[in-house]
Amino acid sequence: MLICSDALLEYTEQVNKLGKTLFELLSEALGLKPSYLTELECDQGQILICHYYPPCPQPELAIGTSRHSDAGFLTVLLQDEVGGLQIFNEDRWVDVTPTPGAFIVNIGDLLQLISNDGFRSVEHRVLAKNAAPRVSIAFFFSTHFHPASTRMYGPIKELLSEENKPLYRETLVRDYMKHYFSIGLDAKTAISDFRL
Questions:
Q1: Which residue has better confidence, 110 or 149?
Q2: Cα 92 to the chain's mean position, in Å?
Q3: Is the per-residue pLDDT at 160 higher than 90?
Q4: Rounded distance, CA 192 to CA 136, Å?
Q5: Domains plus CATH for the chain?
Q6: pTM: predicted TM-score of the whole model, two decimal places
Q7: Distance (Å, whole) CA 82 – CA 99
Q8: HSE of 131, CA atoms in CB hemisphere, 13 A
Q9: Whether the Cβ atoms of residue 152 and residue 171 lie closer than 8 Å to each other
Q10: What is the pLDDT of residues 121-144, one digit of tens each?
Q11: What is the 3-state secondary structure (H, E, C) of the chain?
């Protein structure tokens, strides 16, 4: 049994609660009732991934993780004080400075798709910035971890109008994820392929 299993279970439970609150706030930001995204099961299928980047003696020659956007609905990330995370904003890479005790929340491609670009997934990467090891913990919300799901996801009907036509085609989450993983980490290519 893992020495930190109790702490990990408690962490998972607390981040899951945070995610439910975030989905309520995001629903309201779209002008929908607070439970809307939860009723769409956007908060289902969580997975926790711990990343360890070993010390890199020549960081200028290495990339930790290449340019990509997250495929799911939402990602809650905890990074250590080493840093290395960058987002692509206004045609340039910007460092995301670590703040002790703070989470980074990334909108994923599927939330961009169902919000019809009301929210945008963020392209990001991780650089091996120095010779120190780096640790991050990512908590992903995506229903593809429940492969039996047959729910179709497309732009939310309540957000559409004559002036705001659907920008994306409907898809099963598992089909979107299959496409996403088939092309590999490559900017925002996967979501672009679902545009109408």
A1: 110
A2: 20
A3: yes
A4: 28
A5: 45-192 (2.60.120.330)
A6: 0.89
A7: 10
A8: 2
A9: yes
A10: 999 988 876 667 888 889 999 876
A11: CCCCHHHHHHHHHHHHHHHHHHHHHHHHHCCCCCCHHHHCCCCCCEEEEEEEECCCCCHHHCEEEEEECCCCCEEEEEECCCCCEEEEECCEEEECCCCCCCCEEEECHHHHHHCCCCCCCCCEEEECCCCCCEEEEEEEECHHHCCCCCCEECCCHHHCCCCCCCCECCEEHHHHHHHHHHHCCCECHHHHCCEC
Better-predicted residue by pLDDT, 111 or 64: 111
Instruction: Judge contact between 153 and 113, C-beta under 8 A.
Output: yes
Give the pLDDT score at 120: 95
Locate tokens 């120190």: which residue? 132
Compute the average pLDDT of residues 7-34. 94
CA dist 74 and 140 (Å) reads 6
How many Cβ atoms from other residues are within 10 Å of residue 169's Cβ? 13
Query: Residue 28's closest CA among 121, 120, 138, 158?
Result: 158
The set of residues, in sequence order, having a beta carbon less than 8 Å from that of 116 and lying 6+ positions away, is: 155, 156, 159, 160, 164, 166, 167, 168
Q: Which two tokens stand for residue 27?
A: 């629903």
Query: For the residues 42-62, what does the mean pLDDT come to?
Result: 79
Residue 4 reports pLDDT greater than 80: no
Distance CA 129, CA 6 (A): 32
CA distances from 189 to 38, 87, 145, 164 (A): 27, 16, 22, 23
